Amino acid sequence: MKIIISQQEAVDRGIWPEIMQMFGLDQNDDVWQSEEFILTEAQAQKVGLLPR
């Protein structure tokens, strides 16, 4: 299963720092609020989007 989350959704859920780390982003990278990131099931569980 793949989970898609936008940057804005990640910010709203308080998991944006974890998403940034997973995708090798830092504060200097330009990211649109509507930009989407595809997470594996394991990644989604790690950030709390899915139950373990």
What does this structure look like?
By secondary structure, the protein is α+β, with helices and mostly antiparallel strands. It has 3 helices and 2 strands, in the order E-H-H-E-H. A two-stranded antiparallel sheet has the order 1-2. It is globular and about 30 Å long. It starts with a strand and ends in a 6-residue tail after the last helix. The mean pLDDT is about 95.
Shape: globular
SSE order, one letter for each helix or strand: EHHEH
Give the total of beta strands: 2
Briefly note the structural class of the backbone: alpha+beta
Residue-averaged pLDDT? 96
List its traits.
globular, 3 helices, 38% helix, two-stranded antiparallel ribbon, 52 residues, alpha+beta
Structure described in brief:
The protein has 52 residues and is an alpha+beta fold.
Indicate the topology.
Blueprint: E1 2-6, H1 7-13, H2 16-22, E2 36-40, H3 41-46
